[in-house]
Structure of Metallopeptidase family protein:
Amino acid sequence: MTRRFGLAPSAGDFEALAQAAFARIGEPFAAHLDGVTVHVEEFAEAETLRALGLEDPFELTGLYHGRPMDEESVWSAGELPPRITLYRQPLLAEWCETPVTLEDLVAHVVVHEVGHHFGLSDEDMHALEESAR
């Protein structure tokens, strides 16, 4: 018997899933996400992995780049806008290895990285994720 599999979700598919996750984030957080952008890359760069103390590129599914809101000041002008990077291959691997849907997995990573944008603790991030469901 021949079994056919479809193509893996594209970077564009991941961006759409991330935007859907953003749309489910409630107030007061949603009002402060306008400048946050989402990017999709296949894997984190070697330099990023080294900076985080990671050796295996499959260990990193997402990363927040930017200054958390609780550390912003008028003196931090001129910096790049905050962004979230999703790493497609590690996310695909985790999706294949777990019963979690890709939509839920991407939402989990997006919400976690949004938490970093707000300077939230892991506990606070779990509460935010629950409110986004």
Summary: Residues 1 and 123 are 48 Å apart (CA to CA). The first strand starts at residue 37 and ends at 41. The chain has one domain: 11-131. Strands lie at 37-41, 62-65, 83-87.
